[in-house]
Design goal:
This protein is an alpha+beta fold and about 270 residues long. It is built from 7 helices and 11 strands. Helices cover about 35% and strands about 25% of the residues. Residues about 255-268 have low confidence and may be disordered. Helix 1 runs antiparallel to helix 2. The strands form 2 sheets. Strands 2, 3, 4, 5, 6 and 9 form a 6-stranded antiparallel β-sheet that branches. The N and C termini lie far apart (about 45 Å).
């Protein structure tokens, strides 16, 4: 396979329970050395959402890293996309089995978005309405499409994107892990350019802030930690009706790895 362009990635992540919910059903993690980033938003009663999202994030992150350690240099983008699909499938079955073996976890599920950043590539997989955005040259672009009833109505021309932003039923998903044995995972590859900034987030952020408001935060700050803190703070100021999670990744060409990697900030 062709050599990958040199690119170094810095990461930072932050999650908050918000102002309404007493628990946090979001989960997120990254492995900076291998360029793996994963975020999930769980659902289900009796804290089962926390169980589903944590299972998905921990399993997918560890399995992706394991694959990259063993086969990373030899994997083409299409092969890596297939590995992501396999990891999602296995996490889905694990969540289903846990729900069937423990009545307390019945009905639990989770969204999931995961990316592998390497060289000048981002290979991403996702299920549900947790999103990934790219900020490039000051322009914020959503690079994932929600798997939701509202998005299907937009695709069918029943609603405009502007109408969908205010329409009821935002939480009606058409895909999620833990719902059925057959899981449809959407994967795609993106070319990464130096200076790109990627934002993975749960709907606790996007339901509270517009794309324009998020872009304003991302362009006004240079520190990933400040960006994450400000995004969460603004979501809470707008009501904080759900758990809020953000995971940021920035690409720098030819930069030293030393001092670039921010530590993961866990749940408060």
């Amino acid at each position: 396979m062709p050599a990958l362009s040199m690119m170094h990635f810095s990461f930072h992540a932050l999650t908050d329970s918000g102002r309404v919910r007493g628990n946090n059903e979001d989960a997120l993690a990254f492995d900076a050395h291998h360029g793996v980033a994963v975020l999930a938003d769980g659902m289900g009663g009796y804290n089962a959402g926390e169980v589903a999202s944590s299972m998905a994030v921990l399993f997918v992150k560890s399995e992706l890293v394991r694959w990259l350690v063993v086969n990373g240099p030899h994997l083409h983008a299409a092969q890596l996309a297939r590995v992501i699909e396999m990891c999602f499938d296995q996490a889905n079955l694990s969540i289903l089995n846990a729900a069937m073996s423990n009545p307390q976890y019945a009905g639990m599920g989770t969204t999931l978005v995961a990316g592998v950043f390497r060289g000048s590539q981002l290979i991403i997989g996702h299920v549900g309405d947790s999103r990934c955005y790219r900020l490039r040259s000051g322009v914020l672009t959503q690079i994932t499409k929600d798997h939701s009833m509202l998005q299907e109505q937009v695709d069918a021309g029943v609603l405009t994107p502007e109408q969908a932003a205010f329409a009821p039923g935002k939480n009606l998903l058409t895909r999620a892990l833990g719902v059925e044995e057959m899981l449809r995972v959407e994967t795609h590859e993106h070319v990464v350019e130096p200076g790109d900034l990627y934002l993975m987030c749960s709907d606790g952020l996007t339901d509270m802030l517009t794309d324009q408001e998020m872009a304003a935060v991302l362009t006004a700050n240079t520190s990933l930690a400040l960006m994450a803190t400000e995004l969460v703070a603004q979501a809470n100021m707008h009501g904080g009706r759900d758990n809020i999670s953000v995971l940021l990744a920035r690409a720098d060409a030819g930069a030293s790895k030393s001092g670039l990697i921010s530590r993961l900030i866990g749940k408060p």
